[in-house]
Amino acid sequence: MGTIRKTITLTDAQDGWIKSRIAAGGYTNDSEYIRDLIRREQERGAHIEAIRADLIEGEASGEPRPFDAAAFKQRMLATHG
Questions:
Q1: Is the dihedral of CA 22, 41, 5, 8 positive or negative?
Q2: Which one of 4, 36, 53, 75 counts the least CB within 10 Å of its CB?
Q3: Would you tell me how many other CB atoms lie within 10 Å of the CB of residue 53?
Q4: Distance, CA of 38 to CA of 31 (rounded, Å)
Q5: What pTM was computed for the model?
């Protein structure tokens, strides 16, 4: 995988935050921390898209049906003891 060098501008507070994360031992340098933030944001975005797709699927599945919680619990107890 290739790499691209980027130049970013941070506030003093942001730079201090990154340095504190590195000092805490979680990361070895600024780039590693920022790449981790990007990875986590990518994962978060994928998770949100999956939820959206599930919501769309649920809305398209038709009208809701009544749910009997007591009957459900009885079925689960009978099945899973």
A1: negative
A2: 4
A3: 10
A4: 11
A5: 0.70
- Residues 28, 42: Cα–Cα separation, whole Å: 21
Domain coordinates in residue numbering, the chain: 12-80
pLDDT tens-digit map of 2-51? 999 999 999 999 999 999 999 999 899 999 999 999 999 999 999 999 99
CA angle 8, 12, 16 (to 5 degrees): 95
30: number of Cβ within 10 Å: 15
Joined together, the tokens standing for residue 49 give 């898209």
Two structure tokens written together for 69: 């919680």
Task: Name the DSSP class of 26.
Answer: S
